């Protein structure tokens, strides 16, 4: 691999603008060679004058790049020194070291009786793991830039048959502040020693296991790729067998709606996991740091192959359960509905049982994240929290299907006369439909509160999710007032019309001659239009950050783009088309062109497809925000120091770092006050 590609693949994405511009300098050398005057048509004086001028231009560019690299490195080094001192004081206070108990004898007795709360073991381990990662990133920044300068100077001398760049490298780079890694190395060793002594009970191997991160650019292990490939091959064969079996041995007509509700929910999760595998692969390919955005530990994050393996495993279980349902009489099982129950129980077990399979840390992270979404108003809301809330809003049909499944097996199983009557809506169906929107609504209110009631955008976002409540309300009223005369069901309604005689007797059927004479139909359609416009504008303007440029080549886009430009225009159109799917569904069901359960299945898959594409641009927009703030590690929230600890920290910062730069004092590059 050429160094240019290695350089791009190993740099810290969030600091991309702070690295030396290797590609631009390489292009400058290429242009210098191509534009050089020919000795056959130009005099020696003209040729020498050109090369002298180009040499001055090139070395000036190198010096400018060196100044930027030095300034950024010294800024990060100073930040690391202060953070290291802060963490060290907290750690020594936590360990009750003499002179570091966290109390201040000069304070009043009242303060001594109620000292500031110490950081917990978990908080300190998290803080030191992130701080160690930041030191590794700074070391990587050092080595990549030094190698880049050496390579570009060597390339210049080779292409222009000169020694000027090599001399400049020796005089400027070897003694540059950013190449002196002794202080950084000393901090790294001290962090390892402190973690080993105070947080790992003296076990250095355990400490290094917790601190070290995988090498940058590490490929997916071949064994993981092999397992995912085997699982994918098995799934494809089983899906073909299931399709043929469903065609040859279609279930009883009375069982079809129930079959759809019982199997559609797990199938949606399978598709969702396939989409997640594609999302992670796409983010990695485009350089979007999803690990940082979701604040996942980089030591245990999931690879695309792992998501693919999980999706294939669930897909295999789904296909086997479907085949068992279709061939239950041939295998001696009298009740085919034991197979969907077994499928649900096995999938739940694989998710929640803490066995060392299918990456338990990632599964536990997902469980905790869903729990935080459900309890949204009670705690701080981060990006991963509201991202998961948005995913649940696209999985609302899947959630309703799971409610039907729970109700069927808890109430109606083994006591039903007709399967259809077991999947009719009740009062819990509209409540279940509103739950994902409520979670996001509550998250927006919590973020508004945490912002000090200053950011009105959170209230506007909450208003977007409140439109779902109106859609569900008018849809439910429309269904109840039309009863069994309604020839169609919208996407928020259940799969089939009521068939239970008691339900038909109690429903106010016949109140309206047709669906368009029902006022709730018009209210439902109006709420859908408002929700579509509201959500679409929020997506493209706020979530995607588009429509920032209104003229020129990037019309309707923004200044910084990660993906190809055509992809953003596709997203703008695709998001609008799929958000208008409710109108297509309403028309198809009104004219009885498709059964409700088939239409609902198609709409459910298309909605998670829209969310799959949405994930690409939403995380890219968040990634660009991190790049703008040079945020490359998770935030470390440190407890405040007491006055005595503040004085100790200032003394530590004022002490000599024990490293003398090889450059003379009058040549040392210093930072301006703004960096301090």
TrEMBL record:
<feature type="transmembrane region" description="Helical">
    <location>
        <begin position="225"/>
        <end position="247"/>
    </location>
</feature>
<feature type="domain" description="SPX">
    <location>
        <begin position="1"/>
        <end position="170"/>
    </location>
</feature>
<dbReference type="Pfam" id="PF03105">
    <property type="entry name" value="SPX"/>
</dbReference>
<feature type="transmembrane region" description="Helical">
    <location>
        <begin position="456"/>
        <end position="477"/>
    </location>
</feature>
<feature type="transmembrane region" description="Helical">
    <location>
        <begin position="267"/>
        <end position="286"/>
    </location>
</feature>
<keyword id="KW-0812">Transmembrane</keyword>
<feature type="transmembrane region" description="Helical">
    <location>
        <begin position="520"/>
        <end position="541"/>
    </location>
</feature>
<dbReference type="Pfam" id="PF03124">
    <property type="entry name" value="EXS"/>
</dbReference>
<feature type="transmembrane region" description="Helical">
    <location>
        <begin position="561"/>
        <end position="582"/>
    </location>
</feature>
<dbReference type="InterPro" id="IPR004331">
    <property type="entry name" value="SPX_dom"/>
</dbReference>
<dbReference type="GO" id="GO:0006817">
    <property type="term" value="P:phosphate ion transport"/>
</dbReference>
<feature type="region of interest" description="Disordered">
    <location>
        <begin position="484"/>
        <end position="506"/>
    </location>
</feature>
<dbReference type="InterPro" id="IPR004342">
    <property type="entry name" value="EXS_C"/>
</dbReference>
<feature type="transmembrane region" description="Helical">
    <location>
        <begin position="307"/>
        <end position="327"/>
    </location>
</feature>
<feature type="domain" description="EXS">
    <location>
        <begin position="420"/>
        <end position="650"/>
    </location>
</feature>
<feature type="transmembrane region" description="Helical">
    <location>
        <begin position="339"/>
        <end position="358"/>
    </location>
</feature>
<keyword id="KW-1133">Transmembrane helix</keyword>
<feature type="compositionally biased region" description="Polar residues">
    <location>
        <begin position="496"/>
        <end position="506"/>
    </location>
</feature>
<dbReference type="GO" id="GO:0016036">
    <property type="term" value="P:cellular response to phosphate starvation"/>
</dbReference>
<dbReference type="GO" id="GO:0005886">
    <property type="term" value="C:plasma membrane"/>
</dbReference>
<dbReference type="GO" id="GO:0008039">
    <property type="term" value="P:synaptic target recognition"/>
</dbReference>
<comment type="similarity">
    <text>Belongs to the SYG1 (TC 2.A.94) family.</text>
</comment>
<dbReference type="GO" id="GO:0000822">
    <property type="term" value="F:inositol hexakisphosphate binding"/>
</dbReference>
<dbReference type="GO" id="GO:0005794">
    <property type="term" value="C:Golgi apparatus"/>
</dbReference>
<protein>
    <submittedName>
        <fullName>Uncharacterized protein, isoform B</fullName>
    </submittedName>
</protein>
<keyword id="KW-0472">Membrane</keyword>
């Amino acid at each position: 691999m050429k160094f240019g590609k290695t350089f791009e693949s190993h740099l810290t994405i969030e600091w991309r603008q702070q690295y030396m511009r290797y590609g631009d300098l390489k292009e400058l050398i290429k242009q210098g060679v191509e534009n050089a005057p020919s000795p056959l048509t130009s005099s020696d004086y003209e040729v020498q004058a050109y090369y002298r001028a180009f040499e001055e231009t090139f070395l000036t560019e190198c010096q400018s790049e060196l100044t930027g690299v030095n300034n950024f490195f010294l800024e990060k080094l100073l930040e690391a020194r202060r953070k290291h001192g802060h963490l060290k004081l907290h750690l020594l206070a936590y360990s009750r070291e003499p002179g570091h108990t966290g109390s201040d004898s000069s304070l009043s007795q009242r303060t001594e009786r109620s000292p500031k709360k110490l950081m917990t073991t978990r908080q300190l381990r998290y803080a030191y793991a992130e701080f160690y990662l930041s030191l590794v990133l700074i070391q990587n920044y050092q080595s990549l830039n030094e190698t880049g300068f050496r390579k570009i100077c060597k390339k210049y001398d080779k292409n222009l048959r000169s020694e000027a760049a090599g001399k400049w490298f020796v005089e400027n780079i070897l003694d540059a502040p950013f190449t002196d890694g002794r202080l950084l190395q000393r901090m790294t060793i001290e962090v390892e020693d402190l973690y080993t002594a105070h947080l790992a009970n003296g076990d250095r191997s355990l400490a290094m296991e917790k601190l070290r991160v995988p090498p940058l650019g590490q490929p997916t292990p071949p064994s993981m790729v092999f397992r995912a490939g085997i699982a994918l091959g098995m799934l494809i064969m089983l899906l073909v067998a299931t399709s043929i079996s469903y065609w040859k041995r279609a279930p009883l007509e009375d069982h079809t709606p129930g079959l759809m509700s019982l199997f559609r929910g797990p199938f949606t999760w399978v598709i969702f996991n396939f989409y997640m595998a594609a999302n992670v692969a796409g983010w990695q390919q485009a350089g979007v740091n999803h690990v940082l955005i979701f604040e996942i530990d980089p030591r245990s994050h999931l690879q695309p192959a792992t998501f693919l393996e999980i999706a294939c495993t669930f897909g295999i279980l789904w296909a086997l359960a479907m085949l068992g349902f279709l061939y239950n009489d041939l295998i001696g099982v009298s009740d085919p509905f034991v197979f969907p129950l077994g499928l649900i129980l096995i999938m739940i077990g694989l998710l929640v049982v803490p066995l060392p399979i299918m990456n338990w840390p990632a599964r536990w992270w997902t469980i905790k994240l869903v729990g935080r979404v459900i309890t949204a108003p009670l705690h701080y809301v981060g990006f991963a929290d509201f991202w998961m809330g948005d995913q649940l809003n696209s999985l609302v049909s899947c959630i309703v299907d799971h409610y039907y499944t729970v109700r069927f097996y808890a109430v109606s199983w083994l006591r039903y006369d007709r399967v259809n009557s077991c999947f009719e809506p009740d009062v819990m169906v509209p409540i279940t439909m509103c739950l994902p929107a409520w979670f996001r609504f509550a998250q927006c209110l919590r973020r508004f509160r945490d912002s000090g009631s200053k950011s009105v955008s959170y209230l506007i976002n909450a208003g977007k999710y409140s439109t779902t409540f109106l859609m569900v309300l008018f849809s439910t009223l429309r269904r109840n007032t039309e009863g069994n005369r309604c020839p169609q069901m919208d996407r928020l309604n259940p799969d089939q019309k009521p068939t239970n005689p008691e339900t038909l007797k109690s429903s106010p059927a016949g109140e309206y001659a047709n669906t368009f004479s029902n006022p709730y139909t018009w209210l439902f359609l109006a709420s859908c239009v408002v929700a579509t416009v509201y959500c679409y504008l929020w997506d493209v303007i706020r979530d995607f950050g588009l429509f920032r440029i209104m003229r020129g080549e990037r019309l309707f886009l923004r200044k910084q783009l990660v993906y190809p430009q055509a992809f953003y225009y596709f997203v703008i159109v695709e998001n609008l088309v799929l958000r208008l799917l409710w109108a297509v569904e309403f028309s198809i069901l009104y004219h009885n062109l498709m059964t409700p359960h088939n239409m609902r299945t198609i709409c459910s898959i298309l909605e998670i497809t829209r969310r799959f594409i949405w994930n690409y641009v939403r995380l890219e927009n968040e990634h660009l925000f991190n790049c703008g703030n040079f945020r490359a590690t998770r935030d470390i929230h440190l407890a405040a120091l007491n006055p005595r600890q503040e004085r100790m920290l200032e003394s530590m910062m004022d002490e000599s770092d024990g490293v003398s730069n090889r450059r003379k004092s009058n040549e040392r590059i210093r930072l301006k006050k703004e960096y301090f």
